[in-house]
């Protein structure tokens, strides 16, 4: 996913303001935008990994996935045991060909193949269902985070809110944080978590 770069946004915002206010004949240098101490900047960010670590819906999703995995695994184990039992019976029958007709032997083999095919198909469908369930839930979670971030942005009068991770730096793949010297002033992660009903309790 493409990330909005803080430095680029700052430069874009300043250049836009300068272009609108600069007079053609004037050659005085544009003043750098400043933020008063204690006042939220017009550009803010959230730590996406921090939000995911503390958002209660993410924790609930983890629990739901584990429950689904347990149910699928239990059913698959039963099918695996049935297959092993039928296969062992077929193998034993092969050792006593005189006691069974070809028709009976083929019936046993067919049953073994059917159970094996059913178990393999069940495993594929279970994995597909789990992926779909997880994907849909993640989309909803990200939508909730976006909605909460938009609400916080409106309350604080922010123009831009972008995402980053706590460990992001100049060498982070697919992300570029050239500078982040706001001392956390632009971090609205906790405000977003409050909007999501998942306030973080600071341990003393």
TrEMBL record:
Question: Which portions of this protein are annotated as coiled-coil regions?
Answer: 105-132
| GO biological process annotation, one example | protein stabilization
Pfam families, per the entry: OmpH (PF03938)
| Any one GO MF annotation of this record | unfolded protein binding
Tell me which UniProt keywords the record has, alphabetically.
Coiled coil, Signal
Question: Signal peptide location in the record?
Answer: 1-19
Q: Which GO terms describe its cellular component?
A: cytosol
Q: Which family does it belong to?
A: Belongs to the Skp family.
The protein, known as:
OmpH family outer membrane protein
């Amino acid at each position: 996913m493409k990330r909005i770069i803080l430095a680029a946004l700052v430069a874009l915002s300043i250049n836009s303001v300068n272009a609108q206010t600069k007079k053609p004949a004037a050659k005085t240098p544009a003043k750098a935008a400043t933020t008063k101490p204690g006042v939220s900047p017009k550009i803010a960010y959230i730590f996406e990994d921090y939000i995911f670590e503390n958002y209660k819906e993410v924790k609930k999703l983890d629990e739901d996935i584990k429950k689904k995995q347990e149910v699928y695994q239990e059913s698959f184990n039963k099918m695996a045991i049935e297959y092993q039992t039928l296969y062992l019976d077929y193998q034993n029958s092969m050792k006593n060909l005189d006691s069974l007709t070809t028709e009976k032997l083929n019936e046993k083999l067919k049953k073994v193949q059917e159970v094996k095919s059913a178990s393999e198909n069940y495993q594929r469908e279970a994995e597909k269902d789990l992926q779909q369930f997880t994907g849909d839930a993640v989309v909803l979670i990200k939508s909730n985070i976006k909605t909460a971030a938009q609400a916080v942005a409106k309350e604080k009068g922010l123009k831009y809110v972008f995402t980053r991770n706590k460990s992001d730096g100049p060498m982070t793949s697919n992300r570029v944080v050239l500078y982040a010297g706001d001392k956390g002033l632009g971090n609205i992660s906790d405000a977003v978590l409050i909007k999501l009903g998942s306030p973080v309790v600071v341990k003393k």
